[in-house]
Amino acid sequence: MALTIRQAALVDEAALSHICLVTADAGKSADPLHDHKELPGLVYAVPYLHLPTTWAFVLVDNENVVGYIVGSKDTRVFEQRAAEEWWPIHAEKYPPTEMVKEADKRYAKLLRNMDIAPEAHVAFSPAHLHINIVEEHQGKGWGRKLIETAVNHLKTEGVDGVWLGMDPRNSEARKFYQRVGFSTFEGASPHAVGMRFK
Fold first, then answer.
1. Structure pTM?
2. Beta bridge partners of 129
3. For this UniProt entry, which segments traverse the membrane (predicted)?
């Protein structure tokens, strides 16, 4: 059966969390770095199934979710609602003082002091996204198809561009984003790229 893309649902939460974990170390698996293996997903994937202004699509192989693209059409609203409804709940569950591994401590601290998008990013576009595909399905054109799906969705929401941040160690990701039409923009941080829709 061919791979397919569909809108994500709450039942996909565990799959998104797992994919985020196995791609969280600059595109490679961060599984050995975490005792609390759900933490990367709680920050970068799962909130997009729960909060206002968000959207999410998944790449499915038979019935297994093997990739996702998630984002918000309004980054500032997302940040505000997450600060009120998401980060505090999870920060309480993960005290940094009880963590052993450094990666867990880093995420636990992030839950208490989440990064805010630079003003230049939001000026370029209110929308942002995250995309991850498990390693065995990378390099086969599915990343491009997920980007196209997200762009088409954002157009229906009246948005004319989107940006994303990258792990600076992940040079392959940067090459991919350049191939599909992302580029640097005025005021962008060194590891952010954006795309204007035609």
1. 0.96
2. 71
3. none
Q: What is the pLDDT of residues 103-134, one digit of tens each?
A: 999 999 999 999 999 999 999 999 999 999 99
What domains can you pick out in the chain, each with its CATH number? 4-196 (3.40.630.30)
CB 46 within 8 A of CB 16: yes
Alpha carbon distance 185, 193 (integer Å): 7
Per-residue model confidence (pLDDT) at position 198: 82
Give me the long-range contacts of 135-143 (CB less than 8 A, separation at least 24): 135/22, 135/23, 135/27, 135/28, 136/66, 137/3, 137/59, 137/61, 137/66, 137/67, 142/3, 142/59, 142/67, 143/67, 143/176, 143/180
User: Other C-beta atoms within 10 Å of 70: how many?
Assistant: 25
DSSP string, 140-194: SSHHHHHHHHHHHHHHHTT--EEEEE--TT-HHHHHHHHHTT-B--TT--TTEEE
What is the pLDDT at residue 2? 84
Radius of gyration over every alpha carbon of the chain, rounded to an integer in angstroms = 16
